[in-house]
Structure formats: structure tokens, C-alpha cells
Design goal:
4 helices; 28% helix; alpha+beta; three-stranded mixed beta sheet; elongated
């Protein structure tokens, strides 16, 4: 996963559990954009759908609901009693964030409060087949 820079919040958006599911999600978006645009404005409509950023309130593209997940600090995950989270947290500094996606269906927003880190820069790591995601201060 690529790093991100932000003054206050750094985050990711997960759309699918695997490549096949992601491709099905994109195909659905193509269909929704085509149906909503009537053809000529297809590219703009698809971009609104893909990036989940409708241009305005009158957009033919409905806003998607995202699952809510709360990150936990690695220092807390080590004591969680969950062997998957605790194992991932052992490889991370105390102030890294972890998000558990095992019971979450996409799409999901992964908000990481990185403003207290120098420069607010995060590097992302995946554990347990991508079902646990971590945001780690880039300077660690």
C-alpha cells in the first residue's frame, strides 16, 4: 500500500476483499454510470461513481454508504486478547493504528488520525491476508 500525507487525517478506502470482487464492483460501476448518464456524459458520471464524489445534489449517481470502522493503537491491540490483532501489533510501534476488517463488508472507510505524527505522514501495511490494515508513522 502506498504512503499518504495529510495534515490531520490519513485514510484508505477498501472496496472489495479480492481482485475478482473488485472487478465485479468496477463492472457494476460501469453499468450504473452508463444507466445514469444516458450515454454522452458517461466518463464524468463514471468518475463520480468510482471516486464516490457526486458533483452535486442533483447527480444521478447515488452516494454509497461505507461501513464504519474504528482504528485502535498497536499498544492497545497487543492486549486485546485477539491473536490476529495482537500478532500484527507486535510488529508495529505503539502509536501505529490498526483496523480489523475481518467482519466488515466493503466498501469501508479507514480513517487514521495521523495529525500528531511528524508531518502527518503514514505508511500502510497489511496483515492476515489484508484483513488487518495498519497505518504506521513514516518516520519510524
Amino acid at each position: 500500500m502506498a504512503g499518504a500525507t495529510s495534515g490531520e487525517v490519513s485514510g484508505l478506502r477498501g472496496q472489495a476483499h479480492d481482485l475478482v470482487s473488485w472487478l465485479q464492483w468496477v463492472a457494476e460501476g460501469l453499468r450504473v454510470a452508463w444507466d445514469a448518464s444516458g450515454g454522452p456524459a458517461f466518463i464524468g458520471t463514471f468518475n463520480e461513481w468510482f471516486f464516490d464524489e457526486p458533483e452535486d445534489d442533483d447527480s444521478p449517481v447515488p452516494e454509497r454508504e461505507h461501513a464504519a470502522v474504528l482504528p485502535v493503537f498497536a499498544r492497545d491491540a497487543r492486549r486485546s486478547g485477539d491473536p490476529v490483532l495482537a500478532g500484527a501489533a507486535l510488529e508495529l510501534p505503539d502509536d501505529a493504528y490498526l483496523v480489523d476488517l475481518r467482519a466488515v463488508a466493503p466498501p469501508v472507510e479507514l480513517p487514521f488520525q495521523t495529525g500528531e505524527w511528524p508531518g502527518g505522514t503514514a505508511v500502510y501495511r497489511r496483515f492476515h491476508g489484508g484483513t488487518v490494515v495498519a497505518a504506521v508513522p513514516a518516520d519510524v
